[in-house]
């Protein structure tokens, strides 16, 4: 599969997801599920064909992880919609997915077939895929927190949707970390080495755990909890791509996205 075909798959998927978002907003559940599912199917076909073409999981570069994020956002959106029927969630997931797709169209960062030995572990793919799904859910929680803080401004209303998204997102973060530990043990002989990426991953995991603890025990105001979510999302961005620019990660971290 040549990367030049991505635009056709991407546009087709976005058209389906847009139709699904419109149907969800109008309360047409069957149409929302059908069209969103069709978009996910089209996008997954491209990922599978790219995987076959590269002869490796498309997970090595930042552009390739954005590809998965573009897929998981609508998937997370339809899961949330099916469970809680939030009308806005499909629109959010479609818009944000479109942003990542646009970035990949202008700066794909999809490279050759080579994959360093450490990334050839069977734990590598599930580790990254699970993390991308967690990031999608926690991104939705962040958007909802911003909406409640700056647009709705009703702090007395319990942000249950944020709680639900964080609970599920944090669970997938935990699973992703466990997969990562198994990968590290197989590749480098140790479950944890305090690599810069691992350090920020641990900080992010603990930050969301603090939010969960405060919410379950009602030890903070709603406004404070929402601000914690915003700070946590900034930590998440640092964990995902921000470490690429840290001097401590240059040439030492196996988690930075580069061409080597």
From TrEMBL:
Official protein name in the record: Cytochrome c biogenesis protein CcsA
Compartments, record wording: Membrane
Presence of keyword Transmembrane: yes
Keywords: Cytochrome c-type biogenesis, Membrane, Transmembrane, Transmembrane helix
Ranges in a coiled coil: none
UniProt key word Transmembrane helix: yes
Bilayer disposition of the protein: Multi-pass membrane protein
Transmembrane segments: 6-25, 32-54, 66-82, 89-108, 128-150, 162-184, 199-217, 224-243
Superkingdom, natural source: Bacteria
Domain Cytochrome c assembly protein: 84-246
PANTHER family: CYTOCHROME B_B6 PROTEIN-RELATED, HEME EXPORTER PROTEIN C
């Amino acid at each position: 599969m040549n990367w030049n075909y991505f635009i056709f798959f991407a546009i087709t998927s976005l058209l389906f997801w847009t139709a699904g978002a419109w149907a969800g907003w109008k309360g047409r559940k069957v149409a929302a599920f059908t069209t969103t599912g069709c978009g996910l199917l089209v996008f997954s076909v491209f990922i599978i064909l790219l995987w076959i073409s590269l002869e490796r999981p498309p997970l090595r570069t930042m552009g390739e992880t954005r590809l998965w994020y573009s897929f998981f956002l609508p998937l997370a959106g339809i899961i949330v919609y099916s469970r809680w029927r939030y009308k806005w969630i499909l629109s959010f997931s479609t818009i944000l997915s479109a942003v990542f797709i646009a970035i990949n169209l202008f700066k794909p960062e999809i490279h050759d077939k080579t994959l360093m030995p450490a990334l050839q572990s069977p734990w590598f793919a599930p580790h990254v895929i699970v993390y991308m799904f967690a990031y999608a859910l926690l991104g939705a929680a962040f958007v909802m927190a911003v909406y409640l803080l700056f647009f709705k401004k009703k702090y007395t209303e319990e942000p249950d949707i944020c709680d639900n998204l964080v609970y599920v997102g944090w669970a997938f973060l935990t699973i992703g970390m466990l997969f990562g530990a198994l990968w590290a043990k197989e590749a480098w002989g140790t479950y944890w080495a305090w690599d810069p990426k691992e350090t920020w991953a641990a900080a992010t995991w603990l930050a969301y755990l603090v939010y969960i603890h405060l919410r379950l025990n009602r030890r903070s105001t709603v406004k404070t909890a929402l601000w914690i979510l915003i700070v946590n999302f900034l930590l998440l961005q640092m964990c995902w791509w921000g470490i690429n620019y840290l001097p401590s990660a240059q040439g030492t971290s196996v988690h930075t996205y580069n061409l080597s």
